[in-house]
Amino acid sequence: MNPPDCRRTKMTLKIPDAARRNCGSVRPGLLFLAVGMLAVLVVPLALKFRSSSSPPDVETSVPPGGAPPSQTDTADVRERRARSSAAFVPRATPTTPDVAPEPAQEAAAPNMLDNLPRTQETIQAAGLIAQLSQLNLGGSAMTPEQTVSIAEQLQRITALGTPAVAAIRDFLEKGENSSFGAAKLPGGAPSAASASDLRVGVLDSLAKIGGPEAVAVAGEALQKSTSPSEITLLARTLEQQAPGQFRDAALSASRQALTSLSRNASTEQDVSGLFQVLQKYGDASVIPELQNLSQQWRYYGMIAIGGMADGQGVSALVNMVQAPGAQASGYQQIATQMLAQLAPSSPDAQAALIAQAKAGEIHNWSEVAQSLSGARLTFGTDSLAGDNNNQDLKVTATHHVVAGNQNFRTVNAPLGETQIAQNEALIEQLLNHTQDPAAREALQKARTNLRPGGGN
Asked: CB neighbours of 396 closer than 8 A, spacing ≥ 6?
């Protein structure tokens, strides 16, 4: 056998010189050993190159503990998948909630007050207001000619309609005013037929114009005004044109104005309209306020408490009548008179009146008896409804109290047969509990006046 030809071997191995010299004597076992060593070196390098060049094995769709590995996966893949699963840590839930994306903002509705109609009529209204602002009579009373002229100017503003609303708002925003020196009635009460100043005049025009634009401007003015006459006029206007919508605003404005004015004992402003707002728009929660305000405006406070709807003020009047020192304080007589007005329709008021008679604590029998025959103490004017709604009232006396500039009146309204019978029964009970000659005379006169033709 010839020795192998080493030059024909395809693999060029680095064989030691001794082996090369003895190439012809290389044994088959040694050759296999050399080939095995070569495989050991080459195969791992090939696998490593394949691993580094392939994309990472990221299991994003299979959670830990998910489906078992495929039976066809290699051992290496299964091992790397196991390491990946073991290293997976769920993200902790944030302690603060993610901020939700803000919803798409709808287009804001245009502000009516900033988009009031402005036309040539608006310019004309502004000119008329400017002319009226030049007239300032201060404390002087208006002459008949001036009264007519002012009324005509205000009527022209009203006739311009909705475009005049913008001019009125512009004027109100300036905070300016001109006094018209309203005419005075006997006793010092201002005339309800004439505007006291320019602001009241244009607010009256605003009420007559009406419409949503006028309501919006009136509502804005109510929130800003501190004038008793303005607040009363605005409250009435808004209640007529938007029933119930501005009552809270009217109550708030009235409270603030009365609180401010109560610190000024010398004020000459008539605040009866503010008391009427509290009486008609408020509930039982305003009664403590009315009691406190009675310290300065005694008659206004008592009239308002007695006029609360559904007899809500009866218990407060009873407490004021029966409280220790009530007679000395001056509240007792007025509160007793108000209870007499309410007694025919209120069992609590009736019981309190009889108890006072038994105890000999009624000291104004004349006023009490008149109340039982139909007489009522009311505010000088019904600022929220107007006297046109009370045409059946017969005014028997007007009253003026300098302290607090209080103006009120005594009125008589026709009574139905049922109420007449109730009043007669109450008068009989009171006659049975008093022997005071003056009291009995007053009660008997009241019983006579209850019947038509009694000469009330």
From this structure: 375, 410, 411, 412
